[in-house]
Design goal:
By secondary structure, this protein is of the alpha+beta class. The protein is about 20% helix and about 35% strand. Strand 1 and strand 2 form a beta hairpin.
Length: about 140
């Protein structure tokens, strides 16, 4: 029997705030590939998926939502130009937008109204948002 293939695993977090206007939290990537993205990153070898999601969200935005819910998994072979990466996507819904503080791999972190998202998002994050945001938005 051949050895199993090895892929990178990422945990990403879509955070939606209801007020002052429905918005989603995005980070501007500090490292290639450039662009706006959902907060998240690679899962460490000794880390549970949800712990990785919480860690990455906090490192990149300073936020710690009280609850995260696993919503979807994305694994198209071409979703990440750096190599095969499977992303487990979590979601959080906040009543009001908390002030983010960019850190770690994020050069910037800010809220975008759901009606005015950046035209170009990194990876397959436009598709992720299209699938996940309706489940989080009120």
């Amino acid at each position: 029997m051949p050895a199993p293939s090895r892929y990178a695993v990422a945990a990403d977090v879509v955070v939606v705030a209801e007020s002052p206007t429905p918005a989603v939290l995005l980070i501007r990537r500090r490292n290639p590939p450039p662009g706006w993205a959902i907060p998240g990153g690679f899962v460490e070898p000794d880390e549970d998926l949800i712990d990785a999601a919480r860690r990455e969200l906090h490192e990149e935005t300073g936020l710690k939502p009280p609850q995260l819910k696993q919503l979807a998994t994305f694994g198209h072979p071409d979703r990440d130009p750096r190599g095969r990466t499977i992303s487990v996507v979590y979601g959080a819904r906040l009543q009001s937008a908390e002030l983010p503080a960019a850190g770690d791999d994020a050069a910037d972190a800010r809220w975008f109204p759901l009606t005015a998202l950046p035209t170009t998002l990194a990876f397959d994050h436009a598709a992720i948002l299209a699938q996940v945001v309706p489940r989080l938005a009120g």
